[in-house]
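Minutes, project check-in
Item: structure for the 108-residue chain
Input as provided by the requester:
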Amino acid sequence: MVSDRLIGAAIFVVALIVVIVYLLGLVIIPLFPDAIPALKWVGEDFWQLWLIRIPIIAAIFILGAIAMWIGWTILTTPPPKPIEEIEKELEEAAKEAEKQPPPPPEKK
């Protein structure tokens, strides 16, 4: 079994990489295009647009999946009994309880 600390470390590393990529691609390179010559290709509009598009696409898919799950749950859940039927069952159960003799007292 994978430990919680290993999962936490993996989440931390992935989040750090994502933050660095977005910081470089959307802030550092556009503001200072000659700061890192090896990453000059990141400054192209194509890559910057994809850095913006990816989270938007992911958010749309995630929200769509949640909406579909909610819809499916509502679609497949049977409707509850009407309150009148529940009240009638409770009244019948109370009448049955009145008809039965009380239990004998416990012996000590």
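Outcome recorded: The radius of gyration is 31 Å.
No further action items on this chain.
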